[in-house]
Amino acid sequence: MSATAIDRGPWLTALARINAVDIVLWALRIGVLLVVVVGTINELIKDPYTAAQWFDFLMFGLTLGSIYAQIALGYTMVYGVLRLINFAHGDFMMCGAFAGYFVATPLENSGFLDTHPVAGMAAILAVAIVVSTTIALLTERIAYRPFRRAGGLAPLICAIGVSFFLEQTFRGMFGSDVKAYPSPSWQRSAFQFGSLQIPRVDALVIVLAVLFMGLLYLIVQRTRMGTAMRATSEDPEAAALMGIDVNKVVVFTFILGGAMAGIAGVFYAFVYKQVYFYMGFEPGVKAFGAAVLGGIGNIPGAMLGGFFLGLVESIGPSVFLDGLGIPAPYQLRDLIAFTLLIMVLIFRPQGLLGERMAKKRA
Amino acid sequence: MRRFFFMRTAVGRGLMFGAGGVHLAVVGVLLMLHNRSIIVDTLSLGQATLVMLGVAAGAVALPERLSPDRGAQLAAGAVAGLAAAAPIALLAVAIGTIRLQSIFVALTPDLLKLLTSDLGLGWGSALLLGGGLLAGLIGAALRVCPPAIRSTLIAAVTAVILAGVFEELIQLMLQYEGPIGAVRDTLYVWNGLTPLGAVIVFVVAAAVHQAWAIFGRHRGTAPDEGQLRRQRMIRAGVALLVLAIMPVLAGAYIGQVLMLVGLYILMGMGLNLEVGLAGLLDLGFVAFFAVGAYTTALLTADSPHALLHLGFWMAMPVSVVLAVLVGVVFGLPVLGVRGDYLAVATMGLGEIVRVLVLSDFAAPLLGGAQGVLQIPKPRLGDVVLGSPVQLFYVTLVASGVAAFVAWRLENSRLGRAWMALRDDEDVAQALGINLVRSKLLAYGLGAAFAGLAGSIFATMLTSVYPSSFQLLISINVLALIIVGGMGSLPGVVLGSIVLIGLPELLREFGEYRYLFYGAALIVMMQWRPEGLWPSEVRRRELHAGETTAELDQGADLLPAEPR
Amino acid sequence: MARHALAMALAPVALLLGMQIAAAATVGPVTDPIGVIRIPKGAPVMIGAYMVLSGPDTALGEDEERAIKIGVNNVGGKLLGHPIALDFEDDQCDAEGGQTAATKLASTPNMVIALGPACSSSATPAAPILWQAGITDIGTACTAPALTAPDRKPEYDGFVRTVYSDNDQGASDADYLYKAEGYKTAVTVHDGSPYAEQLVTVFGNDYEKLGGKVLSKEAVAPTDVDMHPLLTRIASEKPDVVYFPIFTAAAAQILRQSKEVPGLEHTAFFGGSALLSADFIQAAGPAVVGFRIGYPDISASAMGKGYPKFVAEYKKDYGEGPISGYHANAYDAFTLAYKAIMKVAKTDKAGNLYIGRKALRDAVFATKFEGISGPIACDAYGECSQFHGTVLQFTSADPKTFGVGKNPIKIWPK
Fold it and tell me: Residue A54: CA atoms inside 13 Å, Cβ hemisphere, count?
C-alpha cells in the first residue's frame, strides 16, 4: 500500500511543477519535429529526385559543411580560451579570400596555376594564411587583450566594432564590387562514378579541408602548445598556476584560428568564386551556430557541427520545406540554419559533444 | 640614455599615427574628406586631417608618467611628428612609382596630389616630412603651454572646423534675408567658409571661450555634488529645448533627421530596459520594431494587403500591444539561455522574422518583397500631420511619454528586480524574485517601445519594405545605448544624436559611416565603457571593478615556475 | 518658469510653421495655384537629383550622374542667364534613403525640379514628398509599373519618367521566350527586391496568357551564394527556360553553378536589365558566353540621332564608355526639365526669374521632343518613354571586351 503511495508521489509533484514555460518549450520541440518529419515524408512520397541528384545534394552539403567546419574551429578555439564570441572571425575569412585573390589572378593569367597546380595552390594558401593570421593577431592585440579580465558586453560590442571596421576597410581598399576567383582547368570538370558525379573542386575542397582539420587536431592534441591551450580552455587560473603563459596561448590560438579561417576563405572562394567585402558575415554567424551545435570549446564537435549544418542547409529546403508545399523554399533556407541554432541554444547549449559551458556560474 | 628612450617612445607613437594616416588614405577616406572644404580653396578637411595627425602625434609623444622636461617634450614632439609623416610620405612615393591602383582602388592620382600638395614626389614628400615635424612641434607646444591658452586655441580651431564641416546645415538655418543673410554671406560661400569667415569664427570662438572661463573663475568655490547635478540637469533641459525648436528654425530636413533620431531614442529606451536594467542581451530587437510597423501598415494602409482601414491613432495602440505579445512569445523559449548565447539566440530570432517578412511564403499576408504601401499619415481632426516637422513633434511626445514610463520603471520594484537579475540570476532567484515574470516583463515592455517606434516609422515612410528591418538596426540600437551610456536616459539621447544624427547629417560620408562606427565602438569600449553619459550607478560599478581587477591580476605578477 | 511658458507658447506656432502648405500665390509676373519660385538675378537655378550613389549598384547611379552633368555642359551651364546648380543626393536604392534624399531636396530653398531616382523602391516614398513641396520629379531608371499606372494616387501627380515601365519589359520577354524561341515551360526566380519580384509577376502573367506554363516561382536572397540545391530542384522540374531578372551577385552565381549541376544542359537561362555591366561578366566567368538578357533597345538604330555624339562626349569627359544602361534616360530627363523650365519661366525687368510650380509640371507633361533614348512624349500618367524590347547576348568572358552593342550584342528582333 505504501509502495503505491510513494510511486504516485513523484508523478504528481512532477505534474504540478509544469508551468507555462515548459508547455511552450515542449510545443516548440514538437512543432519543429512535426515540420521536419511531415515535410520529409511528403517529399519522399513525391520523390522528384533521382539517386544522382540526391548524391549531388550530399556532395554540395559536404562541401559547404567542410568550409563551415573550418570557420567553426576558429570560433570554438577562441571561445574556449577567451570565452569570447569573436564576431569578426568571419571577416578573417574574408581577408584571407581577398589576399588569395590577388595571388590567384596573376598566377592564372600567366598560366602558372594551370601547369603547376600544387605549387600554385600552395602559394595562394600561404599568402591567405599569412594575411588572415596577421589580421587576427592585430585584432587580438588591439581589440581583445584589454578585455582579458572583464566580462559582460564590452568585448562583444568591441568584436562587432572590429567586424564593421574590417569589412569597411576592405571595401574602401578594394571596392564594393564582386571579384571572381579564376577557374583553372584542373578544377573544371567532375569526377564520374557511374551515374554519380562530383565536381572536382568540391572533392578537392572536402579532402583538403579534412586534411587540414586533421592536422589541427594533431597539433592541439600532441604538441605542448596544444596541451597548454586545452588546459587554459578548461580553467585559465589553474593553467596560469601551472606555469602556462596565458598570453602566449591566446596568441597561439588566434594564429591557429586565423590560419584556418584564411584557408576556409580560399576554399570558399574557389568553390563559389565570388569575393566581396561582406562575404564573411553570414558564413561566420552560421559557423558559430555549427560550433555551438557541436559543442563549443570542442574541436571534433566543431567539425561535426560544421558538416551537419552544411548538409542540413543543402538538403533542408529541398526536402522538408518543399514537402510542406511552401512556395519558394530557398528563400527560407536561412530560417533553417537559424532555427537549428536557436534550438541548440535553448535545448542543448552544451552541443552534441560538449560539456556544460553554457550556464555561467555565479 | 633617457633621451634615447624618449626618442624611441616618440617614434613609436608617431609611427602609429602615421599608420593611421596610411589606413585612411588606402581606404579612401582621406580623399573623401578632401572633397569637403572647410575654408574654400584654402583648407580642406583632408588637409586638416593630415595636419591634425601630426599635431596629435606631437601632443602624445611622451606619456606623463615619464615626467619629461619642456625641451624633451618639444624635441619628442618634433620627432613624433616626423615619424607620423614618414609612412605617409612613403605611401606617396609608392603611389607615384608603382602602379598600385589596380589593386588598391583608392590610391588614385588625386590622392597623390593631395598628399604631395601637388608639388611632385620629391618636393611633396619633403613638404610632408617638414610639415609633420612642424605639426608635431606645435602639438608638443600645445601640451606644454598653460592650459588657459591651450583650451582657448583648441576651442577656436574646433569652432572653425565645425563651422566649415556643417556649413550646409548652418546655411540652412540662416536662410533668411536681411541682416542674418548678410552674416551668412560674409561667412560662407555656397560650399564652405570664406577665409574672412574663418578668421571671424576663430576670433569669436576664442573670445567666447575666454569669457566663459573668466566667468567661471569669478564664481569662486567649486560647486558641490548637488549643485553639479542641477547644473547638468539645467544644461540638459536647455539642450532638449533647443533640439525641440530646431526643426522650426532649420526646416524640414532637420526635422526629418531629428525624427529618425527620435525613433532611435524610443527604441534605445526600450532596449535599455532589456539590456541596461535587466541585463538581457537582445540582438533581435528589430523584430519588435518590424511587428509594430507591419501591424500599423496592415491596419491602416490603403492597399489590398490591408486587413482593416483604421486611422493611425487606433492602429498605434494595437501595434504596441501586439509587439508586447510578440516580445513575450520571443522571450519564453529563451528564458534559460544566458549571456553571449542569449545574444546569438535573439539574433537568430530577429533574422527569422526578417526572412519571414521578406518571403513569398508569408507574402499573401505581409506583402513579401513589395512591402505594404499607401499608409496614410495621422490626422488630428482636420489636420493631416504630414510634414517631417509635425511627425517629429509626434515622435517627441511619444518619446516624452516613453521616457517618463522608463524613468518610473527604473525606480520601481520591477526595476530593482531587473537590476538584481542583471547582476546575478541565481542570487536574484534565491532572493525570491520571480525570474520568469521579470524577464518576460522586460522583453514585453522593451518590445512595447520598439512597437511604438515601428508604428511611427511606418506612417513616416508611408510604406514598409522588408529591407528596412535588418540586423543592422538591432546593432545600431545596442551601440547607441552603449556609447551613450547604458541604463541612463540622457545617455540614450546623446548616443542617438551621435550615432544616428551625425551620420545622417554627414551623408556624403555615407559609404564610410560604418568604418567610423566600428572604430568608434572599439575606441569607446576601451576608453570609456560606461558610455558618454552614464548613469551614476553604472559609473560606480564599472570603475569599482577596476580595482578588484588589478588585484586579480596578481597572478600574472608572480614569477612563473621554472620549468 | 518663464521657459515653460515660452515653450508652451511656441508649440502651436511650431506646428503651424511646420505645415508645408503649398499655397496659391502671385509673385512678380507669375500666378500659380501651387506656388511660385523666385530666383534673384545671378542666383543659380537649383536642379536636384537623387539616385543610388553608393553600394553594389553604384554604377547605375553614377552613370546617370555623369549623363546629367554632360547635359548641363551641353546647354552651357546656364538657363536664361542664371547658372545651373546641380544637387546630387544618394538614396542608397531603398525607401528610407529615398525619403531622406527627397526631404533634403524638398527643403532646399528654390529647388526647381528633381531628377531621378534609379530605384523604384526609393521613388515610391520620395515622389509624394517632392510633389507636396511642389517639386516635379522626372524618374530616370525606376521602372515599377505602379508609378505610372492609371490608378496611381494624386500624390504622384508630379511624377513622370523618361524610362519604360516593367509592364512592357515583362511582356517583351514573354513574347521572345514563348513565341520567338518556343520555350513552353518556365521557372522564374526573383531575389526579394521589389523590382525583380514585380517583373517576374508581370512576366508570369503575360507568359501564361500566351500559352506558356510557369512551373514554379522561386526566390533567393541577393547575398545567397550556394545555388546548387535550388538548381538541382529546378533540374528536377525540367523547364525549358529559367527567367531570373535579378542583380549581379546572385545572377552570376546561378549562371556559374548551372554548369555544374547535372540535368540543366538543355535548360536556357535568361536574365534581366540589371546585368548589363563589365562587373557581371567578371563575376559570371566563362558561363556568361551565350547568355541572354532582356533589355530595352539601346542599339544605335533605336536610340535617338544624338546618341552616338553623346557617347563620344561621355568617353571624352570620363575616359571610358558608359558604365551602365540608363545614361540616355537620365540625359533625356535633364533635357525634358530644361525645355519645360524654358517654356514657363518669366523674367522681370530687374532680371529675376519666376517659375510657377504647377505650370512647370504641366509643361513637363506637355513637352515632346526627340531624345537620345528615343522619342519623349508623356501620357496622362507620366509615362514619357517608348519601349522597344530587345534581347542581348554576351559573346565573351573577358570583362575588358564589355561594350553596349559589342559584348553583349543585340540578337532580337532581327
Answer: 8
